[in-house]
């Protein structure tokens, strides 16, 4: 049944009936209560403030326990959020408490991006819940709700006004989460200064349009206390886990040389007011506001982004399911188209690459052929040279053999020839070996000339010489 | 008769003469205060000098401070005590660390300090030196917030940018939000971090070995107490039958001058009663001399590009060297060298 259908029924007159006896449905709230007690409650607190301002100490003081904690360093590169979940029990009520700390907030020299991790964290918790809500098979009753129900913003007790970072951050958070600003370490501000400080802070928040959480005044049971508390914002708190003996009682306090600041003394600080408001009176309202206001805003923005509308152009109510189906079809169609595109692109790319590869292969082949040819050319040349060399060698060998046989056949004449050849050299400078050969040759064949010198000079005799004919000299 | 009497010359009266002349001349002191707004700087200055220097100042809203730039403001007052005149200048740095993006927010401050050095350098090198105005910053009180676990990145960067230009005295401000244990823990932490980051804060001079024991003991206590944890107040309250400067709380009264409440008295004694002149001396002898030497070195390195070795230090700071003169000098130099060989 869509929202507009209810209108049909509201036009009908509602009749009040009086009961004849006790029916018993007045036990409904009790049934609700017992069910919620069995289920257990869940509460998520976000603490935003500079390092060392007292966030962990205040949590310990509020819940009267020691949550484990290491001291944070001032030298973080950026802001990051540290959620820790604890299971607490009081009487028979179970509370799943998550405390989210902002580590490194306010420490960087450039704080322009400091608010981003905080906003992202809050949005992520909303997103997770939205996803669960949109599931087909969902189990919301079992779901661990991590959405932030309250943001405690810790203001440094300067006594002047808000810091610029405080203003910027609160403006970014006020539409996403319930903010309660508190003045931390308030034992450094005197009463008169505190009054001025609170007024200044509230006026700055108002003039900059920052919406902080207002304690609800529509429920008669709590109107009075809530409206008086609203006037005390921001709460000036002091936290302590140490106990000091005051009079005959031991109370949580801070001991100074000039006095003892008691945490639960309402004339010392507003801790008691904070505890009343936050835990004892309005915890449930905070959860409700988170779900009904901040979460709904987030959900609406998110869905509008995705293209959902409440009514189509014909003013007919859209069902979420139909819209969702249509969106899904569209999305799948888109997906398919994109897939086709990608496949096409891929095929083209493959073709291209193939072409390139083929081209390269051809080039390589050509190169190979060329190299082969060169190699063969070289080989041929080498072969030729080798042949030439062989020929030369053979020729040389033949000459050698010839020379040897010549010398062997005429051993006696050798000395005489030698002398003559010596003489010859002295006389004319003719190469000795040549003349020797000639002598040898002259001895092999009959010469017409009487002396070797004449023999050399005589062409006819030379012509007859075998050796000459063979071209040995 | 006493031999000493006969040999008494009389120059033992010199200290008295110095005293008389200095009273006549009067003293001046420039104190800078730096730190984020809301840490009690103005209140502390008022408490230190028992006056109200900041009567009509306007504080900015958070919105106006988002993109605030750092200003330098000066307040000068003439105060007199027992015939001794003091011209006190307080240099304030509104806007430091208050914007969302504080990159290099200390630059206007370092520029201011350098400007004062430069002005003094010019005056000192000038021809008429009778009435030199000394506007150099003698001491910088840096206010560390007591809300954190120690020094923050902006504190470290600021002190490192200034520690070689001015005497830095770090203070833990608004110490009435810390119990005695917490004060001790924070002081130890800050001292460790100062050493770790190599920050050179103002060191008290060692006392002479021939000083009285009491003085030595005081000196030792003083040194172990740094950084001083201070509280300031603009109001006078009634405590223990007396009217004192203090802060009135529902749970008690914090007395500014009570040594068991905070280190205000130690700071005042150190700053005004014992070490004021030493702060001035260190500024003149160390920080200013460093600046001067650095300046001169830069100038001579420009001149040395003309291949002049052993160039004499210029008496006057020359913005651009006289080209003609340079050339002439160079020529003569070479002549001399040639003759020498």
Automatic annotation (TrEMBL), chain A:
Single GO MF annotation: GTP binding
Q: Which domain of life is it from?
A: Eukaryota
Q: Which residues form a coiled coil?
A: 321-406
Q: Which Pfam families match?
A: Septin (PF00735)
Keyword Nucleotide-binding in annotation: yes
Record region (Disordered)? 407-430
Swiss-Prot/TrEMBL keywords: Coiled coil, GTP-binding, Nucleotide-binding
- Occurrences of domain Septin-type G (ranges): 39-305
What InterPro entries does the record tag this protein with? G_SEPTIN_dom, P-loop_NTPase, Septin
Q: Which family would the database say this protein is a member of?
A: Belongs to the TRAFAC class TrmE-Era-EngA-EngB-Septin-like GTPase superfamily. Septin GTPase family.
Any idea what this protein is called? Septin
UniProt organism field: Cyprinus carpio
Please name the gene that encodes this protein.
LOC109058781
TrEMBL record, chain B:
Q: Does the keyword Isomerase apply?
A: no
What InterPro entries does this protein's entry cite? G_SEPTIN_dom, P-loop_NTPase, Septin
Checking SUPFAM superfamilies in the record gives: P-loop containing nucleoside triphosphate hydrolases
Instruction: Report which superkingdom the organism of origin falls in.
Output: Eukaryota
Q: Where is this site: Important for dimerization?
A: 147
- Which CDD domains does the entry mention? CDC_Septin
GO CC annotations?
A: cytoplasm
Q: Name one GO biological process term.
A: cell division
Q: Which residues form the Septin-type G domain?
A: 25-298
Q: Which UniProt keywords apply?
A: Cell cycle, Cell division, Cytoplasm, GTP-binding, Nucleotide-binding
- Check the record and name the Pfam families matching this protein: Septin
Q: Where in the cell is it found?
A: Cytoplasm
Where primarily located? cytoplasm
Tell me if Nucleotide-binding is a UniProt keyword of this record: yes
Task: Show the GO MF annotations.
Answer: GTP binding
Please give the family membership noted in the entry: Belongs to the TRAFAC class TrmE-Era-EngA-EngB-Septin-like GTPase superfamily. Septin GTPase family.
What the entry lists under PANTHER family is as follows: SEPTIN
- Record-given protein name: Septin 5a
Q: Which organism is it from?
A: Cyprinus carpio (Common carp)
């Amino acid at each position: 049944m869509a929202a507009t259908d209810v209108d049909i029924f509201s036009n009908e007159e509602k009749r009040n009936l009086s009961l004849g006896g006790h029916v018993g449905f007045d036990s409904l709230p009790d049934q609700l209560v017992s069910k919620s007690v069995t289920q257990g409650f869940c509460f998520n607190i976000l603490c935003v403030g500079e390092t060392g301002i007292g966030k962990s100490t205040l949590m310990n003081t509020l819940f009267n326990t020691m949550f484990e904690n290491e001291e944070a360093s001032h030298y973080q590169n950026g802001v990051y959020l540290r959620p820790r979940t604890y299971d607490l029990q009081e009487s028979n009520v179970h509370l799943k408490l998550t405390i989210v700390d902002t580590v490194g907030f306010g420490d960087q020299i450039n704080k322009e991006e400091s608010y981003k991790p905080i906003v992202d964290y809050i949005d992520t918790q909303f997103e997770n819940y939205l996803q669960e809500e949109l599931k087909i098979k969902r189990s919301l009753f079992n779901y661990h709700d991590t959405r932030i129900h309250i943001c405690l913003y810790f203001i440094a007790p300067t006594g002047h006004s808000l810091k610029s970072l405080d203003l910027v951050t609160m403006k970014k958070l006020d539409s996403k989460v319930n903010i309660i600003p508190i003045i931390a370490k308030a034992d450094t501000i005197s009463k008169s200064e505190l009054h001025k400080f609170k007024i200044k802070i509230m006026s700055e928040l108002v003039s900059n349009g920052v919406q902080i959480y207002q304690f609800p005044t529509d429920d008669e049971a709590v109107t009075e206390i809530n409206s008086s508390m609203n006037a005390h914002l921001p709460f000036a708190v002091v936290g302590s886990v140490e106990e000091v003996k005051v009079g005959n009682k031991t109370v949580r306090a801070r001991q100074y040389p000039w006095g003892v600041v008691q945490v639960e003394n309402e004339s010392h600080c507003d801790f008691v007011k904070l505890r009343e408001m936050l835990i004892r009176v309005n915890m449930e309202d905070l959860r409700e506001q988170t779900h009904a206001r901040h979460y709904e805003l987030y959900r609406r923005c998110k869905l509008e982004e995705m293209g959902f509308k409440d009514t189509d152009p014909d003013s007919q109510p859209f069902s979420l399911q139909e819209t969702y189906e249509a969106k899904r079809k569209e999305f799948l169609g888109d997906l398919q188209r994109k897939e086709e595109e990608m496949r096409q692109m891929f095929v083209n790319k493959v073709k291209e690459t193939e072409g390139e590869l083929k081209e390269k292969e051809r080039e390589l082949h050509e190169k190979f052929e060329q190299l082969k040819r060169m190699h063969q050319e070289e080989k041929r040349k080498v072969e030729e040279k080798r042949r030439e060399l062989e020929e030369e060698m053979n020729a040389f060998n033949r000459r050698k053999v010839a020379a040897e046989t010549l010398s062997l056949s005429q051993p006696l004449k050798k000395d005489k020839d030698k002398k003559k050849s010596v003489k010859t050299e002295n006389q004319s400078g003719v190469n000795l070996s040549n003349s020797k050969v000639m002598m040898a040759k002259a001895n092999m064949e009959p010469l017409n000339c009487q002396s070797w010198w004449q023999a050399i000079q005589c062409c006819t005799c030379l012509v007859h010489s075998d050796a000459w004919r063979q071209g040995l000299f | 008769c006493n031999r000493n009497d006969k040999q008494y010359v009389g120059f033992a009266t010199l200290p008295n003469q110095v005293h008389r002349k200095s009273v006549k001349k009067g003293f001046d002191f420039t104190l800078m205060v730096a730190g984020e707004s809301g840490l009690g700087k103005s209140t502390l200055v008022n408490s230190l000098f028992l006056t109200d220097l900041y009567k009509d100042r306007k504080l900015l809203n958070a919105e106006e401070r988002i993109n605030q730039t750092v200003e330098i403001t000066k307040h000068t007052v003439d105060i007199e005590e027992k015939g001794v005149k003091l011209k006190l200048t307080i240099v304030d740095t509104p806007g430091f660390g208050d914007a969302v993006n504080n990159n290099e927010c200390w630059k206007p401050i370092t520029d201011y300090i350098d400007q004062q050095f430069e002005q003094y350098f010019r005056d000192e090198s000038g021809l008429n030196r009778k009435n030199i105005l000394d506007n150099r910053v003698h001491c910088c009180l840096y206010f560390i917030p007591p809300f954190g676990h120690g020094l923050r990145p902006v504190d470290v960067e600021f002190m490192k940018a200034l520690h070689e230009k001015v005497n830095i005295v770090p203070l833990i401000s608004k110490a009435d939000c810390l119990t005695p244990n917490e004060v001790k823990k924070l002081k130890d932490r800050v001292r460790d971090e100062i050493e770790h980051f190599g920050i050179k804060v103002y060191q008290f001079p060692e006392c002479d070995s021939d000083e009285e024991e009491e003085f030595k003991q005081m000196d030792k206590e003083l040194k172990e107490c740094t950084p001083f944890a201070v509280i300031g107040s603009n109001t006078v309250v009634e405590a223990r039958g007396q009217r004192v400067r203090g802060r009135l709380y529902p749970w008690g009264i914090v007395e500014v001058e009570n040594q068991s409440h905070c280190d205000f008295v130690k700071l005042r004694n150190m700053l005004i009663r014992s070490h004021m002149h030493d702060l001035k001396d260190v500024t003149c002898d160390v920080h200013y001399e460093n600046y001067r030497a650095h300046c001169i070195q830069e100038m001579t390195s420009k001149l040395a590009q003309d291949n002049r070795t052993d160039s004499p230090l210029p008496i006057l700071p020359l913005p651009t060297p006289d080209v003609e003169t340079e050339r002439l000098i160079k020529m003569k130099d070479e002549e001399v060298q040639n003759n020498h060989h």
